[in-house]
Amino acid sequence: MFLRPIRRPVRLRSGARPRTVGLILAASLALPANAAVERPLYRDAHAPVAARVDDLLARMTLAEKVAQLVTVWEGKVKLLDTHQRLDPAARATLYPNGIGGFARPSDAAGAVSPRVLAGRDVRSTIELVNDLQRDALTHTRLGIPILFHEEGLHGYAALGATSFPVPIALASSWDPDLVRRTNVVTAREMSARGVTQALSPVVDIARDPRWGRIEETFGEDPYLVGELGVAAIEGLEGVGKPQMLAPGKVFATLKHLTGHGQPESGTNTGPAPISERELRENFFPPFEQAIARAGPGAVMPSYNEIDGVPSHASKWLLQTVLRGEWGFTGAIVSDYSAIDQIADLHHIAPDHQAAAIIALSAGVDSDLPDGNSYKTLAASVAANRVSVALIDDAVRKMLEIKFRAGLFEHPYADAKAAVAVTNNADARALARVAAARSMVLLKNDGTLPLALPSLGAAVPVIAVIGPNAAVARLGGYYGQPPVTVSLLDGIKAKVGSRARIVTSLGVKITENDDWWEDKVTLADPAENAKRIAAAVDVARGADTIVLAIGDTEQTSREGWADNHLGDRASIDLVGEQQALFNALKALGKPIVVVMINGRPLAINRVAEQANAVVEGWYLGEQGGTALADALFGDVNPGGKLPVTIARSVGQLPMFYNYKPSAHRGYLFSDKTPLFPFGFGLSYTTFAVGEPRLSTPTIRPDGTVDVSVEVRNTGARAGDEVVQLYVHDKVPSVTRPVKELKAFERVTLQPGEARTVKFTLDHRAFELWNLEMKRVVEPGEFEIMAGNSSVALKSATLTIAR
Question: Which residue of the set 175, 221, 335, 551 is catalytic?
Answer without folding.
Answer: 335
